[in-house]
Design brief:
Helix 3 packs antiparallel against helix 5 and helix 8 runs antiparallel to helix 9. The strands form two sheets. Strands 1-4 form a two-stranded antiparallel ribbon. It is mainly α and 209 residues long. It has nine helices and four strands, in the order E-H-H-H-E-E-H-H-E-H-H-H-H.
């Protein structure tokens, strides 16, 4: 396990028959919890122009990126409650994402782990993080954005295939499941490196743990 990446992600495979009714109408059943997630992440809109422009902001702050960056840069600290906020928000967002991807038919919990496991350690900013690297991590991760774009397109189509498979058989094909988990794992590693700034280890180009 010496090669294990600090951001760890997994989803329990549902080795059982999934609910075909909620799977069939997943695009509608997810709406309430998606609204909750959107409210936490925050939303803003501006319309009009010039002096008559109007802006409306609703909800929370989403992931904390700039505050940890500044604290690491100037104080070499990563406040624990900022770490806790980012970790719990990412866990919640992933539970919703897994539900949308049909990988669990249990409604996403706002606080319970359920079948989704996402973990990364609270970093010791003085010992484990380079104080200057957060300024360029988002830029260094550009190759991952490109790869994830194409992986995401593939995930979209295989989830559609899984939708039909569940409707007809009640089961999520294991190969498709492992692929979609791998895409989520890759995306979470990039987020942990480039945006929540919990590790300086460059994310590996792989779907596997």
């Amino acid at each position: 396990m010496n090669d294990a990446y600090p951001v760890r992600f997994s989803v329990d495979y549902p080795d059982r028959e999934l609910n075909r009714l909620t799977t069939g109408f997943r695009i509608f059943t997810v709406i309430p919890i998606a609204i909750v997630l959107g409210a936490i992440g925050g939303y803003s809109s501006t319309w009009g122009g010039g002096t008559r422009a109007t802006t409306v902001a609703v909800g929370g702050t989403g992931l904390l990126f700039i505050p940890p960056l500044l604290m690491i840069l100037f104080r070499q600290k990563y406040p624990r409650w900022w770490y806790d906020w980012n970790l719990q928000l990412l866990r919640f967002a992933n539970r919703v994402g897994i539900y949308v991807a049909l990988m669990d038919d249990r409604y996403p919990s706002t606080d319970e782990q359920q079948s989704v496991r996402l973990d990364f350690a609270h970093p010791d900013a003085q010992q484990e993080l380079n104080r200057w690297l957060p300024l360029v991590k988002w830029f260094l991760a550009i190759p991952h954005y490109v790869v994830l774009f194409f992986l995401g397109i593939g995930a979209f189509f295989v989830v559609i295939a899984a939708w039909f498979a569940i409707l007809f058989t009640g089961r999520y094909p294991r190969g498709i499941f492992d692929y979609v988990v791998g895409v989520h794992r890759w995306a979470n590693r990039v987020t942990g490196y480039g945006f929540t700034l919990v590790t300086d280890r460059y994310p590996p180009f792989r779907l596997s743990p």
